[in-house]
Amino acid sequence: MAIRFEKIVTGRFGNPEASTLAGYEAAGGYQAIRKILGKAEPKNVIELVKASGLRGRGGAGFPCGLKWSFVPQSLNPKYLAVNGDEGEPGTFKDRELMIRDPHQLIEGIVVACYAVGIAKAYVYIRGEFDAPWRAVERALGEAYAKGYLGENILGSGFGCDVYAHRGEGKRGHPRLKPPFPAVVGLYGKPTVINNVETLSNLPHIVNNGAEWFAGIGIDEKNTGTRMYCVSGHAARPGLYELPLGLTCEELIYEHAGGMRNGKALKAVIPGGASAPVLTAQEVREGKVRMDFDSLAKAGSMGGSGGVIVMDETACMVQAAGRLARFFEHESCGQCSVCREGTGWVSEIINRVEAGRGRADDLATLASIDPNMRGNTICVLSDACAMMFGAFLKKFHREFEAHVEQGRCPLGSPYPA
Amino acid sequence: MADQEITFTLNGEAVAAKKGEPVLEAALRRGLHIPHFCYHSYLSVVGQCRACLVDVLDAGNGKPVPKLQPACATPAIQGMVISTVSPRVKEAQEGVFEFLLKNHPLDCPVCDQGGECPLQDQTMAYAKAVSRTHELRRIYPRKELSAYVKPEMNRCVHCTRCIRFTHEIDGGGEFGWASRGDRTEVGIFEDLPLTSIVSGNVIDICPVGALTDNKYRFTARVWEMAHAEGPCTLCSVGCRQRVWRAGDELKRVTAGENPAVNDAWICDVGRYGWSGVHAGERILRPLIRREGRLQPASWPEALGHIARRLGAILRESGGGAVAGLGGAWATNESAFQFGAFFREVLGSNSVDCRVHPRDLAQTEAQLAAFGAVGGQGSIAGLGRAKGILLVGSDPFEEHPILALQVRKAARGGAAVVSVHPRRIDLRLHSGLRHLCPLPGEEARALRALAKALAEAGAAPSGEGAEGYAHALASADLDALCREADIDPREAREAARALRPEGAEVVVLAGPGAQAEAAAEAANLALLLRAELLFASTGPNLQGALDMGLHPALLPGGRPLGDAAAREACQGAWGGPVGAAPGLSSAQVWDALNERRVRALYLFGCDPAAEHPEGARVRRALEAAEFVVLHASHANASLDYAEVVLPAPTLYEEEGSVTNLERRVQRLRRAVKPLGEAREPWRAFAELSRAMEAPMRAHALDRVRLQARLLCADYAGPLSRLPEEGVRLARERRGAFRAAALPPAAPPAGGLRLILAPALWLSGSFAASAVHLKDMPRAALRLSPPDADRIGAGEGDEAEVELGGRSLRLPVRVDASLPVGLAQAPEGYLAALRGGLDAGAARGGAAVKVRAAAAAPRVKVGG
Known about the structure:
By secondary structure, chain A is α/β, with parallel strands linked by helices.
């Protein structure tokens, strides 16, 4: 099957003016909402998005149109929460979308609000993101001034407000589900939660049609492009918007310039910190493709699009230990399993890496793994278990060698 | 539909549940244990500890749920099939316990929670026996919380019960959590210490030894103690509590559960008031005044002395020359016997349990409106009301558990209207409306509210409705509001808020509802078709009245004029009962001064200290020829007593008590009477023998038998009482009383002082309780502008000058007070010898205040 190469959401990245309203308009922006607001039936917009096959670009890859249809039409107010947190290590796409093309996001938000019947959207941008915050705030100001937001947009009778927020004013805690956010979400109201990249696709789908979008990608369930955030030991790390369905090798060797210094590939984390690591052998022999379903079949996941490439010099224990520290640090502390589990795992792995591993440590790790899966309010604990479970299983010898030799055989300096 | 009964299957056993209630709740009720830490029946469900994970084999739709589910957050559905013993549940449980213990110090031998620790017990039942952790355990920086709650946060398992308690129940929100992951730390902000009057509940709900009782810890082990469960007797709410003793010594009090009264909470006064039992102020043996000094005597000597003195007065002047006051701090049985002793042995109807004029006013207002006292409302009704009218009530300071019930209702959407000179604090973000009349003008504000209700369509109906409707029709809302100094718009808004369609409204009248305000509160309850609660300070005022401690009412509330009622008493007691009403507590003082009454029997009360007209009362006590004080603690009235008899506290007695909603609860003896104290009902019987007129009731069951015969609705409760007690409700029907309001007080100049009770400062019992000394000190509260004006800051001493006398008190700056109004705790000022009489003047007494001394500046930190 031939894969059509076409840039969608990053199409204007080369154009420094695109981040301004004038630049965005000049590049064909705000046409999508002209096309649908007051003209298309909202439910037809949902159908359009369903037909496009657009799946969520945040991590779980849930079909976007289907998610919208879960929101009870009769309950008001409803909210759209735009997830601009992008907290997963190895991922840096939403940041760029917000900085370089904020109006594309805003237009996508208006499309989503129109489709679902939402009058208020909140763009959540985490505290560490300063430049994206300023870019979105500026763009919101411009959009309001020009009447793309607020009451009666473009005389269509439809209005919606968009706010950039740094949180709900509470401690950041996942909530018990059910009730699901589609029924009880932000401020206790029905809420659609969409990722920045997902929403940024919407104006293009409206402008060019569902068939056009579905024509990019490998099959009807993996349509459009993904923004792959390549980091690590690739020769040209960076952000690559590519159609869904390329193989991992194509991504690394044809687009990201191959391995740095000609070293051999050792492992790839294909979808951010939570995605189970793939060995070079799996990547090579399995011809693993980088779409949602192929990665799931390969035992990993597309996740957030963060592709971390590691060559033969990388110590897998050190990598797992570094990622474990991330989960330990990010655990909100609610569930006993995650609060204590992520810290414990991090302590053990980093102890092993530092050469102080105990004979029973690997068995302990292996037995902690299942207890951290499926038993908590959110999936951070699962993600941590998926991460270290895969490292431990696929690079068990390397872990053993650390314990046996009482040091890191690859000579990785233990981070102080 | 919400209470629809369904059945699900747990480990093969059928479990009945209310549809939608947590599976965990239903399982625990059925006696099937599922481990849990964060779940608490009276707190929100958070599903955090993950100990209660269960396997839903069938979600009631024939399909299993793929993941294990927390039983606390899984609603019970008809036909569900659940396992808590499947291998994957076992594995998850062992995992959760391993995680919980990962950073928990295994210091059980030196932990106060040991022996009653859910973590310890459930670990034994559900966890693997081996520890696999080699890491150092988490250590938090040491912080202190309060004088009552001792933190040892290294033991914390982050169940967040304390956080949810302070946010949801108490409302202070002191507890929170900081940091993330395994550094997550539960605690308080250092500049916001734990000062809530219900703070001790976090000790009870903490499932580990992270929050322990600072007053109790290291004084006993739980397995060395026995406990008695029953109502608290420090105020009229009657919260269920457990009183723990080791040997003959009380050790601590913990909360009991009574969904009809206190849910699972008690206040800190109830928790620590027991320390008054072992106080140095206890009267431990009889005393007789000889040569001007009270000297120890034996019971026979003391009883013989009383018998001789009373016998002589009876012979010379008849029974009318003897009056008795008190009984609100006694069991129903002792109160009954007190009344019987007066009516039968002394032939006097001058017996009254309402020593404080407020109690007199409130009970008389109820008698006028309903023909009976109490039984018009329920505490549970307060908790689920959709509208609440608070009249002269500051529940957090007076009846803290009622405050929690009001908060519960408000969280459920109730509109709360407070009529109080201060803007009382219920720690509500919304839903509370204040009407702040001038002190003494509460009745006028209530009349204005009634007028606004009538404007909004509320129409009086029933007895007296016409007269009241006429009074409202002729009332001028603006004039009423002007005279009471409230905003007519706010009165109208309050009226609208209190009239939710078809919803239940409760009127709660507190200590500030005096005289006309009490009567007007009854009118408003009738107008709103509301439940009505009067919250008195005496713990058993309701029971004492029901037992006949009223100059015109016999046991069972039957009027003295009712010949059949008198005959029934004669049948039970053996002697005739006089038909002429005796003197009420209001009439006794003049009668003593005029020598119409020669002897006064004070039973568990202290008018010299607690009566707001202290000087007048003390003059009368001085004039009395013979005063008996029969009490548990030395108090200000002791100085006037010729004979003192030791009484046990209610921690030392078996019996029953009746709370403010007329719930009769069984009181169990927690510790045997101290010293030579003996049960009052027994003392009265013995005194009657000494007077050669022995009472028939000489044993507790005989007292109860008589009480059952004479108090019709107590017949059941006094023979058999369920654990939660029995509420003796009355039919909600009464008569409007359209009394004319007294003329408005002239505008007050200068600073006025009002007295209001604070539970922890009121009465000799609380005053003697050493553990209550860490509660907020007695203070003169001033509005910020008034404090500025006299140049006094928080904690500085102020000199209060009133009626030519002066007193020093620390200043508390309190923004809830309007400018020009000061407040001091009732019973406290007068308790000081030669103290001040305030509150006698309507609208507060004019007072002069000046700064006396700056507070000692304590260096904070480093």
